[in-house]
Amino acid sequence: MVPKIDAIIAGKSRARQEVQTWEDRRASAVMRKLSVDGSNMSRLERRRALLARKLALGHSGIRETLRRELSWSARIARLTATLSGGRRKLSACDLVVGRGSADAFCEWFRERTRQGDEPPMLDACPDHYIIATGSDGKQVVVETTGGAPFASEFVIDYSDSRGIQTALDPTCPFRIVGTARLKDGVSVGGVCHQFRQEGEGFRAKLSVEFPVMVLPYMIAEHRWHLAAEFSNWIETASAS
């Protein structure tokens, strides 16, 4: 049974359907980009078609398709990081999950990362293009973050929390924390996702740190990205 999941975005409770509507809009944009015909498809069929297309392209095909976007986004990210001087903004939302274990979900996520199990990672959000674990244990990500005009590539190191500025909540004992860098090592932020049990379910306090010079629109849109991907991951984990 799929748990009830409500998102809290900018202090306002959002039903699952609202998050899925955002996901549908992004799916349409990505399907056009990857030349996938999604007409007359259900949401589940569109997700399956997008995942199949990404896996068929493979990492090299994805990078070639997004070559210009990745080149421009890397330049912009370096400049933004430099101008920000280490200062950051948070893009955050909460998920209230009606049933399940915070500890079990975090372990599911960590295990998928350790194994480099890419399909469930990609399937969680249309804007995910590559989410793969390298031989060094770091997670390589190619995605469109929030309302960014271009897809970007970065590496998340979940064994490194240096520089993370999100305040740790002592009531949340389960955490997924890591730094994010460009391939050349330039720091572009990080993630600090915190979880706690609440009754029969749990709360996920999700936070991504961006350089402070990132546009407010992108920060606001990424809240919906977070709500979409983690809601889908939680549903997938609950069914496994």
From TrEMBL:
Superkingdom of the organism of origin: Bacteria
Protein name: Uncharacterized protein
Source organism of the structure: Bradyrhizobium ottawaense
Lineage, broadest ranks: Bacteria, Pseudomonadati, Pseudomonadota, Alphaproteobacteria, Hyphomicrobiales
